[in-house]
Design a protein that fits this description.
Largest sheet: 6 strands, parallel
Oligomer: single chain
Strand order of the largest sheet: 1-8-5-4-2-3
Structural class: alpha/beta
Bound molecules: zinc ion
Shape: globular
Distance between the termini: 53 Å
């Protein structure tokens, strides 16, 4: 008897382009939401993006609640969740880099109220997906949440974000190659649910980005366009899969472990990029795509070594040998690598 079922949750409006920030309230209107908006932002995005959105609402006689968060701590999640729980708040807008959006996403999940993502940096695929990286003690971990109801990504604003945030977003997308390799392996060995469509979309997204790597240059609005479209399509792949599998494998476990061992040292996307070089080597050895991944990262100015990440060699080895313990996600690491093997892969790929 046929008993399969699938539930795909996607953002309803995805608006990317020049000056689309000025149309934020129109995008929200199209969702037919009720109640007052709660805008979650942080200090810099508040000036460049949240203030103009508040002005748009005020022109229409709506007075949004605004919460500015300084840090992605458990306390800020608590205070945003409390504000979002107020009866008159109908929905949330996360306006900022990863931090404000992650917090808005968590609070929205908690209160069962929808949220709109307004990224001011194209730094990771969490700006479009339901996945969010939440603080827990001195570490972070990834949880599944609803995807945003809408995404408003203004390429002019994104182009003004610090350049390394954009290269981190690119590296996060390039790592889709190894995430998909891990996913296929887990499907073959552990019967993990797999979607060929989501896998193909995720790989194609990485490929398009690599093919257009020469267009990814600082202060170029077109770069933000290329990167944001890729982040959107990566997020859609996760929505179709109903998990972060299409965009998160062993390279993400490696990055999460670095976050524990050496918090706030390097950007998420940069860490997964370096992780992806080593994971590619583990999958296919020296004849595999690890060099292509490294060269693509180099072409966009993303780090390819421990030194460029600002992380010492021993920490990289420790992360490699322990990251399989983080969560129940089967990858090429299986039940873990020993130290000798970890050193060898890191050396052979010039990471250390
Ligand atoms: Zn990522």
């Amino acid at each position: 008897m046929f008993q399969k079922s699938t539930w795909i949750r996607l953002p309803r409006n995805v608006v990317v382009g020049h000056d689309v920030l000025s149309r934020t309230v129109d995008v929200v209107d199209d969702l037919h939401l009720h109640g007052r908006p709660l805008i979650v932002t942080s200090p810099t995005p508040r000036e460049v993006a949240a203030a103009p959105i508040v002005a748009q609402y005020e022109e229409r006689g709506i007075d949004p609640e605004v919460v500015t968060v300084e840090k992605a701590t458990f306390e800020s999640v608590e205070s945003v969740t409390e504000a979002a729980g107020a009866d008159d708040i109908g929905y949330l807008l996360g306006v900022g880099g990863g931090k404000a959006i992650d917090i808005a996403k968590m609070a929205s999940d908690h209160c069962g109220k929808g949220f709109v993502s307004v990224p001011t940096a194209a730094s990771h695929d969490g700006i479009v997906s339901g996945r969010s990286s939440i603080p827990e003690g001195d570490t972070r971990h990834s949880v599944a949440a609803e995807p945003p109801l809408a995404v408003v990504a203004d390429t002019g604003v994104l182009a003004n974000a610090p350049w390394e945030l954009t290269t981190a977003g690119c590296a996060d997308i390039i790592s889709n190659y190894t995430a998909v390799l891990d996913w296929r392996l887990a499907n073959r060995l552990k019967d993990v649910e797999y979607s060929e469509y989501a896998a193909a979309l995720s790989e194609m997204t990485a490929e398009i980005l690599v093919d257009n790597a020469n267009m990814v240059r600082p202060n170029l609005e077109e770069s933000s366009w290329v990167v944001t479209k890729a982040l959107v399509s990566s997020g859609v792949a996760m929505s179709i899969a109903g998990s972060s599998r299409p965009a998160s494998g062993d390279e993400h476990l490696f990055s999460h472990q670095l976050d524990r061992l050496t918090p706030n040292t390097a950007l998420h996307g940069h860490q997964v990029g370096v992780g992806s070089i080593m994971t590619a080597f583990l999958h296919r050895g020296d004849r595999g795509i690890w060099r292509d991944i490294r060269d693509a990262l180099r072409a966009i100015d993303a780090p390819t070594t421990a030194t460029e990440l600002g992380i010492d060699d021993e920490t990289v080895i420790e992360a490699l040998t322990t990251c399989h313990e983080i969560r129940d996600r089967y990858t090429i690491l299986g039940d873990g690598m020993n130290e000798e093997a970890a050193r060898e892969v890191a050396r052979k790929t010039d990471v250390i």
